[in-house]
Write a structure and sequence with these properties.
The structure holds two protein chains of two kinds. Helices cover 24% and strands 18% of the residues of chain A. Chain A is α/β, with parallel strands linked by helices. The chains are: A alpha/beta, B mainly alpha.
Chain lengths: 569, 104
């Protein structure tokens, strides 16, 4: 029998990028919150410039609970399951994956929120990707803008505005949708390589700009600016300049004394009455089972676990999983597509140091920023030329067909060229499809005996075409910057494993037949259950999800605080 | 598994060339490794991968002795803060002899 705890107003499951933000407005409004997190506080002594620790063995980010629940992957119900990845891309910690992520923090475009209607208007219904389940979001960019602004200031995002209320500024991204005001801090400084690539982009007539990041470019709220030490990717920040929720919104929420954190606590089920409301969550902590009653439950346990928890939480009222009487839980899953391009330069480009958010970005070929007539795809991708390269990674370089893979020839080549090659980051607009969803695996179980999540992801024509198009632009960019040689990797398949950019499974929409949560993030079927995270997003955009995740999470929390009487019946 | 494979490699090297791998001439070594790459591709890939990790990881892991690996590729070593000048292109960066010590 679980131990019954004192009831709280809100139980927040997961204190990562999403839950870690939501607790702040709730706490400030005076609500009593139980923040239930499977991980715990990270030890800053583990934030070190060590490639083996961070990147080769993944010791910072590899966590037992997540690794026991790694989703399986298959292309279709009739194809075999691939061998599971050995490390889950997300981590359990107070702060979650925002401890070690790259921190890139740009907003989605207005087009991303209403892609379907815009495509039909401009190109006709025939241009919609065949087999996609694309729908307009129930919320617009304009409606979300105030929360983007809130998060940028509260969490701390450095950048340069390209469009303030319609006024364009070429020092920022002129393709961005309008914002009410400037970023709270200037962008991260540019390295020599960033400037070199920016110059080349301008020669092509493009409009490059420095990337926005949830990383301090200068002292902000009492923490220092970035030191550019070059161990940011999959590493914790040794000076708290990277604005994880663990050093920003969570401590602020704790100050109010309205948030109590239950760490090392694994939520196993969401409980409900036999009618239409959730009543709390069950979790295991220190070998014992607890029941946390709550008037409202918000789940921010990352995309895969968000779906899995609902599907596991069956009851008489919800025999197919909580909030799943319309069969929509797990549907419209999306793994973000991208494409690799590497380049070899004739000179040292000095990208050892920095951070991947220290980047020159080009947004020319993303979304609907160019005429797609006759191209056979919609969307495109953003391109990033960034810094930070580790020595093992550098020495493991592709030899571009110019040297053998070992021996004295290899040694000579690598001595000259380890510091002369780089890769880019391309993110493709990716859409939901009928052939792509999440559910529970038939065979594989976690140590508690619960099935793990299963990803089914089938082929499509739109994203490979869009990605290849952008890869060709990236090649053009590298060559304009003086690269000796460029190699494009095949983009015919997207992620074939769990990914750090995973969306859907509890999609937002106005129609309960095609979505799980409403325009505020609350379940159509259980109105006191809210979902936090990219699982509510219906499109990916051509850029990173986290800022949008955080803006949506804050907005969901604000909806609760402003209508508390109605939610807490 | 790796040690057993390397022992087997030395045995085969003694059998074919009369000495363990490390004592062969460079040309003989190349011959042995070329054969290994062809006949045991998976093992070869594993050893190559581990060699790269050993050569270029922080010296506290036992390889990259006296920073020889980092010097080979001209990686200037980790430092906890980097000045703007050290991120320009075409500059000589003074190597930092810094090795992370584990907190075990």
């Amino acid at each position: 029998m679980p131990i019954n705890l004192k009831p709280v107003d809100v139980a927040v499951v997961g204190l990562g990028a999403a839950g870690g933000v939501a607790v702040l407005p709730l706490a400030r409004a005076g609500l009593k919150i139980a923040g239930i997190e499977a991980g715990t506080w990270m030890d800053p002594r583990t934030f070190k410039p060590d490639e083996i620790y961070n990147n080769v063995r993944g010791l910072l980010t590899s966590v037992p609970k997540a690794n026991r629940e790694i989703p399986t992957f298959r292309e279709s119900p009739s194809s075999p399951t691939r061998p599971r990845a050995s490390v889950h891309p997300m981590m359990n910690a107070i702060g979650g994956t925002s401890i070690h992520y790259w921190g890139q923090s740009w907003r989605l475009k207005a087009w991303d929120f209403r892609t379907r209607s815009e495509v039909v208007k401009r190109y006709g219904a025939g241009a919609l990707p065949p087999g996609s389940t694309l729908e307009d979001w129930p919320v617009s960019y304009e409606e979300l803008e105030p929360w983007y602004d809130l998060v940028e200031h509260e969490v701390g995002v450095s950048g340069k505005a390209g469009n303030i209320q319609g006024q364009l500024d070429p020092r920022g991204n002129v393709f961005e949708s309008p914002r009410q005001r400037e970023y709270p801090m200037p962008p991260l400084r540019q390295s020599g390589y960033n400037e070199h690539m920016a110059h080349a982009a301008k020669q092509l007539g493009w409009k490059p700009f420095p990337g926005p990041a949830a990383i301090n470019s200068q002292e902000y709220k009492g923490r220092p600016g970035c030191a550019f030490h070059g161990y940011c990717s999959r590493g914790g920040c040794h000076i708290s300049a990277k604005n994880s929720t663990a050093v920003t919104t969570i401590p602020e929420a704790l100050k109010t004394r309205n948030l109590k954190i239950f760490d090392k606590a694994q939520v196993t089920r969401v409980a409900s009455d036999n009618h239409s409301r959730v009543t709390g969550v069950t979790y295991i902590r220190d070998g014992k089972e607890y029941f946390q009653p709550a008037k409202v439950v918000l789940i921010g346990s990352y995309t895969y676990e968000n779906t899995r928890l609902l599907l596991l939480s069956k009851s008489k009222a919800w025999p197919n999983g909580l909030s799943n009487n319309h069969g929509q839980v797990g549907k419209h899953y999306i793994g973000h597509w991208g494409g690799g391009v590497i380049a070899l330069f004739p000179q040292d480009i000095n990208v050892w140091y920095g951070t991947p958010s220290q980047a020159t970005l080009v947004d020319e070929w993303a979304d609907d920023s160019f005429d797609h007539s006759g191209l056979g795809f919609i969307g495109g991708g953003s391109m990033s030329a960034y810094t930070e390269k580790h020595p093992i990674e550098a020495a493991s370089m592709d030899t571009f067909g110019r040297a053998p893979a070992w021996g004295s020839g290899w040694k000579k080549f690598v001595r000259e060229n380890a510091g002369r090659w780089t890769q880019c980051y391309i993110q493709t607009n990716t859409f939901p499809y009928e052939n792509t969803w999440l559910d529970l695996d038939d065979e594989v179980r976690d140590p508690l005996g619960d099935p793990v999540c299963r990803i089914t992801s089938g082929p499509r024509v739109n994203e490979p075409r869009a990605t290849e198009f952008v890869q060709q632009k990236m090649e053009e960019w590298y060559l304009a910057a003086g690269a000796l040689q460029v190699i494009r990797r095949s983009a015919s398949s997207g992620p074939t494993a769990p990914t750090t950019h995973a969306y859907g499974g509890t999609r937002m929409g106005d129609n309960p037949e095609t979505s799980v949560v409403d325009r505020w993030g609350f379940s159509h079927e259980a109105p006191n259950l809210g979902m936090l995270g990219a699982s509510v997003m219906g499109t990916t955009g051509a850029r990173n999800p986290t800022l949008t995740v955080q803006a949506l999470a804050w907005r969901t929390a604000d909806r609760l605080t402003k209508n508390w009487k109605a939610f807490s019946l | 598994m790796v040690l057993a494979g390397l022992d087997a490699l030395d045995e085969s090297s003694r059998a074919t060339h009369g000495a363990p791998l490390a004592e062969l001439s460079p040309d003989q070594q190349d011959a042995v490794l070329t054969a290994l790459e062809k006949n045991s591709a998976t093992f070869f890939a594993l050893v190559r991968r581990l060699t790269l990790e050993g050569m270029f990881s922080d010296p506290s892991y036992g390889g990259n002795r006296n920073f020889a690996g980092w010097d080979l590729i001209r990686y200037p070593g980790p430092r906890l803060a980097v000045a703007p000048e050290d991120q320009r292109m075409g500059v000589e960066i003074k190597p930092v002899r810094y090795s992370v010590t584990h907190a075990h």
